Amino acid sequence: MAPPSKRSPRSPPDLPTLLTPLPQIFAQTQTSTANHSKNVALLRKIQEQAALVTTPRKKGPPKETGELAFTEAFVACLERCLPVKKGVAVADRVLKFVAAFVQALTKGECIE
Length: 112
Description:
By secondary structure, the chain is an all-alpha fold. The protein has five helices and no strands. The protein has helices at residues 15-19, 22-31, 36-50, 65-81, 88-111. The chain is elongated and about 50 Å long. 17% of the residues are buried.
């Protein structure tokens, strides 16, 4: 039996730890399209968990720092992948992955 988690079920995850897998996900998407659906699901899960991280403000709703950090990390990984001159196939795979991720995001928003 696994030991009980020290974190309460509603506590937001640690943001730096949460965003650590993004470069590995982008590296995997460059090699093959076979793992894209698995990586889309993983990236969506990371994005949803990052959205839970907020910073309280003195007035008004809390600032969505996790969502912003996820977007910045996602764009940084994308910027590193596309300009590399490895060949057209690598860029096509990354763009197909990003398109699949955006499609998953829009499907998720329609359901909610």
